[in-house]
Amino acid sequence: MDILTLGIESSCDETSVAVVRNGREILSNVISSQIESHKEFGGVVPELASRMHVQNVIQVIDSSLCEAGCTLEDIDQIGVTFGPGLIGALLVGVSAAKALAYKLKVPLCPVHHLEGHISANFLQAPDLEPPFICLVASGGHSHIVECIDYGKFRILGQTRDDAAGEAFDKISRAIGLGYPGGPAIDKAAKNGDPNKISFPRVHFENSLDFSFSGVKTAVLNYINNTKEFKVEDVCASFQNALVSILTENLMKANEATGYNKIVIAGGVAANSALRASVTDAANKCGAKIYMPSPILCTDNGAMIASSAYYALKRGRQADLELNAVANISLESI
Ligand code: KG4
Ligand code: ZN
């Protein structure tokens, strides 16, 4: 029998609700982005995000059901991002999910946001099964993760300072390309020389950790101390440095575990240079590579519904005491 999961995501600046069949097939995935409202402030304003989620969530749920061609009565179970993220923003999604689960008398499943990002891959690759190695790079996190089984993770490396997406956003703001920085830098870099400026690439001995604050500072110093430069060259050279660090650690992790199955996820996985670089590296060593289409890399409800489907199968169910958590490790779910 088919199982329909309603997935709700509201951890940052996207209110998104999706209906997913059997954990893999998207029936609808409505994403209401707040980017235009946060743009003038140069980044996400938490209080504004919470208020906008409150204004939007009911309408997004209705649109998602309508697009999926079903009603609330057809929903078998509900998944919701409970953390990590902006606490006020998370609370809106968690409250809506609890109200629906109570009314419909269906199971409610708490989903870790990064687990959701990883699961975006299950929506487009019918053959993908754990175990595999995954790079999860978003605005708030940069992790190398061993996905041992559905919902079971081991963090092999993580950033010691800024997240990759955060570095994109900060450089973009400094260079005048606005928020969000990732897509803007990705676009500008297409017309620049990735080898024009040599920015530092930090490696740690015997560790798969990242550090992006050094490259960020080097770019900011370059912008401040250089009289004339081509913005496109700075973007391409910065992106090149970042992408090469991400790719190198991902490939090292794959080699160490021997899975030969590599996955990328999170907003930064939408980056065209990163996608090309990991595809090339995987092809060279004969590993299989998976990546969601760019729209499923950034925050969406479908990835949460997919995670909830597999987590509920393994008995992860919450009661109406479920609370949002601003910080929680992927290993502790
Ligand atoms: O996963 P996501 O939607 O939200 C978080 O969980 O943080 O990721 C958003 C981040 C932002 O920092 C944004 O600049 C970055 O992903 N991003 C990109 C691209 N598209 C989004 N970074 C690099 N290249 C892109 N094309
Ligand atoms: Zn995210």
Q: What does the secondary structure layout of this molecule look like, with pairings?
A:
Blueprint: E1 4-9, E2 14-21, E3 25-33, H1 35-39, H2 46-68, E4 77-83, H3 87-104, E5 108-112, H4 113-119, E6 132-137, E7 142-149, E8 152-158, H5 164-175, H6 181-189, H7 213-225, H8 231-257, E9 261-265, H9 272-285, E10 288-290, H10 294-297, H11 301-313
Parallel strand pairs: 1-4, 4-5, 6-9, 9-10
Antiparallel strand pairs: 1-2, 2-3, 6-7, 7-8
The structure holds 5'-O-[(R)-(carboxyoxy)(hydroxy)phosphoryl]adenosine (KG4) and zinc ion.
Descriptive notes:
- The chain has helices at residues 35-39, 46-68, 87-104, 113-119, 164-175, 181-189, 213-225, 231-257, 272-285, 294-297, 301-313, and strands spanning 4-9, 14-21, 25-33, 77-83, 108-112, 132-137, 142-149, 152-158, 261-265, 288-290.
- The protein has 333 residues and is of the alpha/beta class.
- The strands form two sheets. The chain has a five-stranded mixed sheet with strand order 3-2-1-4-5, sandwiched between helices. A five-stranded mixed sheet has the order 8-7-6-9-10, with helices on both faces.
- The radius of gyration is 20 Å and the shape is globular.
- Strand 4, helix 3 and strand 5 form a beta-alpha-beta unit.
- 5'-O-[(R)-(carboxyoxy)(hydroxy)phosphoryl]adenosine binds at residues 12, 138-140, 165, 168-169, 180-183, 186, 266-268, 270-271, 298-299.
